Amino acid sequence: MQPRSARVGVMDDMLGQFLDEAAGQLDAIEAGLLQGRAPAEALTRLAALRGDCMAAGLTRMERIARALEGLIGAGGATRPLILRGLMRLRDIVRAVSHAGVEPPGDDSDLTAAAAYGRAPSLADTLAQARDRLLEIAPGARDPRLSALLARLEGIKADLADAEQTQPIAACLAPLMDIVEREASAQGKRIALSIDGDLAIEPGAAEPLREAVTEIVRNACKHGVEAPEARRRAGKPDMGHIRISAHRGPDFSAIEIADDGCGFDCTALRARAIEASILPADAVLRMADAEIARLMLTPDLSSAIGGPGQRGLGAANAAIDLLGGQLRVAASSARGAALLITIPDIGAHLAGDAIIYRRRA
Q1: Cα–Cα distance measured from residue 95 to residue 191, given in angstroms and rounded to the nearest whole number
Q2: Does the predicted model carry a pTM greater than 0.85?
Q3: Which of 338, 310, 327, 340 is CA-nearest to residue 214?
Q4: DSSP code of residue 219
Q5: Are 213 and 261 within 8 A, CB to CB?
Q6: Is residue 159 within 8 Å of 126, Cβ to Cβ?
Q7: Which of 182, 275, 337, 338 is surrounded by the most beta carbons within 10 Å?
């Protein structure tokens, strides 16, 4: 029998070989997707990678690989979300190569989107089960069977509804690229995270995405500081914008928060007076909270952003289309937060997700 040190050395060599192969697989998968190759190649590589992860006991990598299989197989997922998953796998590979263990992390953005992508197949399976029951007991009058069939029909209808929705992480996935471009253009370092289990109907997706995009752009330009300014304020070089979604007692909410410098109410007052939005004496009497609310109006928003810039006024208008409300939830030298609330107008639960339903 080999001594323990020898066995450990062999295991380390095997893990190192696996990590090298995994990095190569990930490069090949990304290249294939960017070159427009058939998804079958990517699915084959991911299945092999997932099996190797299982054998190596790398459960987080296995979970992400499985989610990416679902996203690519569904065909409807946005490419930025898939590329984000591949990037996350690369980060884990690097971490394991240095520390020998997977780093902890939340991958619900990928797993939730993959679950959404599987909704059509679940609906089909339920339809097949219903039809099979009818074949087995044609014309049966047993009330228990009738109740079961009705229940299956209801679940199938809910899943059919879910096919028309997308998780908020998928809906807002393009923001990852937007933040990267904005940060690069301004010499800043900014990370974006999206958390929550809300699912968005197609009719609500575009106004919501427009609103959140304008809020995030504003945070990149005016909220999160450059690395030098952050260091002077005792903050890390990397700024963070966090989008979190949750459900309240009678509404759904999406908060967009950053760890930047907050809203400069003195500068906002000066800009409001300069643009003649209100009489100067009225502006000077306004409390900071009122000035912050004024920032959500089209006039001051355009004055801040300049010609051709839509800003927070456009975000407010987009949320108004959904029957919702946008407000400033917090502002200080440690950051700012804006809160979107949308009333539960006929909203219902489908699994763990909220599906928005408008009354006719």
Answers
A1: 18
A2: no
A3: 310
A4: I
A5: no
A6: yes
A7: 338
